[in-house]
C-alpha cells in the first residue's frame, strides 16, 4: 500500500504542476512534433479546461446519482412495484444507446456548448448507477429485512437504517464506474463546442499535432485513474466500517 | 419471475373491474401530451428552422382522425390493468401505424413538385413513439419471453422496418432525402462501421480469450495485465484514435508490405487498433472470472477421470466459463458499435461520418441518418447477445 500511495501522490503532483504551468513541460512534448509546431496547447488555459471538464462531469454524475438512486428507491417500494420490470429492461437497453448519438440528438434542443454534453453525460451516467442501486437494494438478505421489521422499524427507518447502508458499496461502485466513463465521454462533447479537455485533443487532430492529443488524453486518463483509485479506497473503508461483504472485484 | 406484480389484487374473476395501472398512467399522460405537440416539422429548405404542424394539419382530416382515435384507444389499454399480451399487441400495432403515418405526413405536407421542401418528424411524433415503445417494452418485460422468442422478435421488427423502407412509405421524409443524395456513401460507411465493430471484436476475442486463459494459469501476470487494460479504458477514445495515427503511419512507411495490407496513419487502421485495445479488457477479465468460477468439484472430477490439463481446459473449464465470456463479448460489441462512430473524426469512416457532417452543417436529418442506424444496430446486438447469453447459461435454463 505504501509505495502505491507514494506513486499516486507523485502522479497527482505532476498532474497539478502540469495543469498550472504547462509551459514548463514543453521540452517533454517537443520531440513528438515537427520543429515549427507548438508543443503546448495555449489557445485556452489547461487549468480552465480541466476545471470546466471536471465541473461538467461531476455535476452530471451528481445529478444522475440523485435521480437514479431516487428512482431505484421508488421502484423497490411496494407502491412502485409496477415500474420494476420496465425499469430493469430500460436500464439494460438504454446503456446500448451510443453517447455520440445522445450528444448529436441533444444539439437541436439545447444548441452548441456545454448543454448537450451535460445532458448526454447525465443520461449516460444514470443507467449504471440505477442498475447498481437496484441490485444493491434488492439484494438485502430476507433475514435482515425480517429482523428490521420485527424490531418494529417503519418502512422509512428500514430504508435509511438498513437497506441503504447495506446497498451503499454497490451503489458507490456504480457511481465510480459512471464517473470514469463520463470523464472519457466528456471529451467527445468538444465536437459540439463544450469546453472540456476534448478541445485540446480535437485541436491536435485538426492540426496534426500529436503533442496536443497526448497532453489532452493524458490529463483525462490520469484524472480518471486517480479518481477511480480514490473512490475505491473510500468504498473499502466504508465496506470495512459497515462490515458489509464486498462483492468480488 | 415478476409474476407477483399485483400484490394486492383480489382474485380476478367475476365481473370486469376498471383498475388503473400505475405505469399506464405515466405512459398515457406522456402519449396524451404527444397528441398535442407538433406531429411533423416543415421547412422550406434543408437548413432553415422548421415550423411545427399539428396532427390534423400534418396528416389531413382522415388520417388525423385514424391516428387520434387509435392512439386514444391504445392509451386507454395502457391506463387500465389489462393482460400483457393485449398491451403488447396494442402497442406494436400503434407503433406500426405511427411509423407508416409519419411517411404520409411527409407526402401530405410537401407541396406538389417541390424538391427543396423538407418534412421531418416533430416532437409530437417522438413523444408518441416513446410512449408506445415504453408500453411495448413494459409488456415484453412482464411477459418474460424466452431467449429464442426475443431473437425472433428482433428479426421480425427488422423485417417490418425493412418493408417500410422498401415500400417507399418514407420517401417524402427529409432523412430519406438525405439518404437518396448519398445512397452509395451510406452503404459504404455502413460496411465500414460493421467491419470496425465486428473486426475489432473478432481480433479481441482471438487474442483476449487465450490471454485470459494464460492470466488464469499464471497468477502474477493476472494483476499486471488487468491493470494495464484498465488504464487503456480510461484514455478518451478520441485521444487514443489520434495517438495511433503516428505509430501506424510509421509502420506503413517502414514495414515492408504493411501499406499493401491497408495499414496507414489515418483511416480505418488506427480506428480498428483503438477499438481492439478497448475490447481487450472485457474479454480478458470475463475469461479470467469465468475460468475462476469453475467449481472445484468439476475440476477434481475431470482430473480423477484422468483428463490431461489440456483436455480439462477444452472439455470442462471452457464450456463452463463460456456464458461469462459471452457476456464480455456482448459488452464489447455494443460498446464498439457506439465507439465506431468516433472513427469518423480521424477519417476512419462509419456512420459517424454523417453524424459529424450533420453537426457541422446543422442539418439534423443528416445526423439522424448516421445516429439512427447506429442506435438500432447497438440495441439489436445487445438484445440478441443477451438472449444468446441466457441460452448458453445452464443454470438459468434449469430454473425456469
Give a brief rundown of this model.
Chain B: Belongs to the binding-protein-dependent transport system permease family. Chain A has ten helices and no strands. Chain A is mostly helical and 249 residues long.
Notable traits:
A: 249 residues; mainly alpha; B: 400 residues; MetI-like fold; disordered C terminus; MetI-like (chain A); membrane (chain A); transport (chain A); transmembrane helix (chain A); ABC transporter permease (chain A)
Q: What portion of residues of chain B belong to β-strands?
A: under 5%
**Beta-strand fraction estimate of chain A:** under 5%
What's the helix count of chain B?
Answer: 16
**What is the CATH superfamily of the largest domain in chain B?**
MetI-like
What is the N-to-C succession of helices and strands of chain B? HEEHHEHHHHHHHHHHHHH
How many strand units of chain A? 0
CATH topology of chain A: MetI-like fold
Q: Helix amount of chain B, in percent? A: over 70%
State the end-to-end distance of chain A.
17 Å
Mean pLDDT of chain B: 85
What is the molecular shape of chain A? elongated
What is the structural class of chain B?
Answer: mainly alpha
What is the domain total for the residues of chain A?
1
CATH superfamily of chain A: MetI-like
What is the radius of gyration of chain A computed over CA atoms, rounded to a whole number of angstroms? Answer: 21 Å
Family (chain A): Belongs to the binding-protein-dependent transport system permease family.
Main location (chain A): membrane
Protein name (chain A): ABC transporter permease
Keywords (chain A): Membrane, Transmembrane, Transmembrane helix, Transport
Amino acid at each position: 500500500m505504501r509505495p502505491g500511495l507514494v506513486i499516486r501522490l507523485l502522479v497527482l503532483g505532476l498532474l497539478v504542476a502540469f495543469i498550472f504551468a504547462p509551459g514548463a513541460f514543453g521540452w517533454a512534448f517537443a520531440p513528438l512534433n515537427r520543429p515549427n509546431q507548438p508543443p503546448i496547447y495555449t489557445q485556452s488555459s489547461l487549468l480552465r479546461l480541466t476545471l470546466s471538464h471536471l465541473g461538467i462531469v461531476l455535476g452530471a454524475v451528481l445529478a444522475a446519482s440523485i435521480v437514479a438512486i431516487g428512482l431505484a428507491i421508488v421502484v423497490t417500494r411496494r407502491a412502485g412495484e409496477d415500474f420494476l420490470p420496465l425499469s430493469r429492461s430500460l436500464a439494460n437497453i438504454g446503456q446500448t444507446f451510443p453517447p455520440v448519438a445522445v450528444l448529436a440528438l441533444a444539439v437541436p434542443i439545447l444548441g452548441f456548448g456545454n448543454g448537450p454534453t451535460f445532458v448526454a453525460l447525465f443520461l449516460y451516467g444514470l443507467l449504471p448507477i440505477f442498475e447498481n442501486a437496484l441490485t444493491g437494494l434488492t439484494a438485502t438478505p430476507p433475514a435482515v429485512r425480517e429482523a428490521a421489521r420485527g424490531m418494529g422499524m417503519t418502512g422509512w427507518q428500514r430504508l435509511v437504517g438498513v437497506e441503504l447502508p447495506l446497498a451503499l458499496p454497490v451503489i458507490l461502485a456504480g457511481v465510480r464506474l459512471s464517473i470514469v466513463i463520463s470523464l472519457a465521454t466528456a471529451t467527445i462533447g468538444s465536437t459540439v463546442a463544450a469546453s472540456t479537455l476534448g478541445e485540446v485533443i480535437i485541436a491536435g487532430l485538426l492540426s496534426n499535432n500529436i503533442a496536443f492529443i497526448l497532453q489532452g488524453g493524458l490529463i483525462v486518463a490520469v484524472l480518471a485513474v486517480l479518481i477511480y483509485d480514490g473512490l475505491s479506497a473510500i468504498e473499502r473503508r466504508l465496506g470495512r466500517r459497515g462490515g458489509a461483504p464486498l462483492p468480488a472485484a | 419471475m415478476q409474476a407477483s406484480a399485483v400484490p394486492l389484487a383480489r382474485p380476478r374473476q367475476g365481473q370486469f373491474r376498471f383498475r388503473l395501472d400505475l405505469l399506464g398512467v405515466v405512459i398515457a399522460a406522456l402519449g396524451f401530451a404527444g397528441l398535442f405537440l407538433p406531429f411533423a416539422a416543415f421547412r422550406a429548405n434543408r437548413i432553415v428552422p422548421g415550423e411545427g404542424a399539428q396532427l390534423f394539419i400534418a396528416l389531413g382530416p382522415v388520417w388525423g382522425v385514424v391516428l387520434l382515435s387509435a392512439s386514444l384507444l391504445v392509451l386507454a389499454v395502457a391506463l387500465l390493468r389489462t393482460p400483457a399480451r393485449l398491451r403488447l399487441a396494442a402497442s406494436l400495432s400503434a407503433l406500426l401505424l405511427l411509423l407508416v403515418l409519419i411517411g404520409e405526413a411527409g407526402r401530405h405536407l410537401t407541396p406538389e413538385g417541390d424538391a427543396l421542401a423538407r418534412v421531418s418528424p416533430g416532437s409530437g411524433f417522438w413523444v408518441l413513439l416513446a410512449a408506445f415503445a415504453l408500453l411495448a417494452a413494459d409488456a415484453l418485460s412482464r411477459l418474460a419471453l424466452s431467449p429464442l422468442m426475443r431473437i425472433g422478435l428482433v428479426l421480425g421488427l427488422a423485417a417490418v422496418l425493412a418493408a417500410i423502407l422498401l415500400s417507399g412509405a418514407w420517401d417524402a421524409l427529409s432523412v430519406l432525402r438525405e439518404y437518396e443524395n448519398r445512397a452509395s456513401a451510406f452503404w459504404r460507411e455502413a460496411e465500414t462501421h460493421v467491419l470496425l465493430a465486428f473486426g475489432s471484436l473478432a481480433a479481441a476475442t482471438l487474442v483476449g480469450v487465450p490471454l485470459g486463459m494464460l492470466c488464469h494459469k499464471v497468477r502474477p501476470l493476472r494483476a499486471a495485465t488487468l491493470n494495464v487494460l484498465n488504464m487503456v479504458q480510461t484514455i478518451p477514445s478520441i485521444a487514443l484514435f489520434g495517438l495511433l495515427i503516428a505509430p501506424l503511419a510509421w509502420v506503413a512507411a517502414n514495414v515492408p508490405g504493411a501499406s499493401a495490407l491497408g495499414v496507414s496513419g489515418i483511416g480505418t487502421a488506427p480506428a480498428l487498433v483503438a477499438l481492439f485495445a478497448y475490447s481487450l479488457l472485457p474479454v480478458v477479465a470475463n475469461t479470467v472470472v469465468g475460468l475462476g468460477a469453475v467449481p472445484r468439484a468439476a475440476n477434481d472430477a475431470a482430473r480423477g477421470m484422468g483428463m490431461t490439463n489440456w483436455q480439462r481446459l477444452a472439455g470442462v473449464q471452457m464450456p463452463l466459463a463460456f456464458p461469462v465470456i459471452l457476456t464480455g463479448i456482448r459488452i464489447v460489441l455494443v460498446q464498439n458499435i457506439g465507439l465506431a462512430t468516433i472513427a469518423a473524426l480521424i477519417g476512419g469512416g462509419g456512420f459517424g461520418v454523417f453524424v459529424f457532417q450533420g453537426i457541422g452543417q446543422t442539418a439534423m436529418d443528416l445526423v439522424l441518418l448516421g445516429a439512427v442506424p447506429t442506435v438500432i444496430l447497438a440495441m439489436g446486438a445487445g438484445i440478441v447477445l443477451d438472449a444468446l447469453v441466457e441460452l448458453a447459461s445452464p443454470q438459468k435454463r434449469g430454473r425456469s
